[in-house]
Specification:
- This protein has 89 residues and is mainly α.
- It has one domain.
- Helices cover 74% and strands 0% of the residues.
- The protein contains two helices and no strands.
- Helix 1 runs antiparallel to helix 2.
- The longest helix is centred in the last third of the chain and has 37 residues.
- The radius of gyration is 20 Å and the shape is rod-shaped.
- The two termini are 18 Å apart.
Length: 89
Amino acid sequence: MPDAPAVLPAPGPVSRAALILGVIITAVSFVALLVILSLYFVETTPHAALYWLSLWGLPLGFMLMLSYVLLALRRRQHARRLRALGAPA
């Protein structure tokens, strides 16, 4: 196995909040998209807020989840750098 640290530090509150908010925002905007499609199916005009949720919620949620991945990558590199210097994990 490549030089993966034995114990990674736990995610901080910022990265944990980014992940949780990203998942919630993405799920809500996906539900809004499904509601829009079902309202079109029954030939009703959806409310403008549903368009806003689906248009801006999906990219925002995915950007928050991507920021969690980038923060985890940074945390892993920092742990690997500390291990290379001989610091205890």
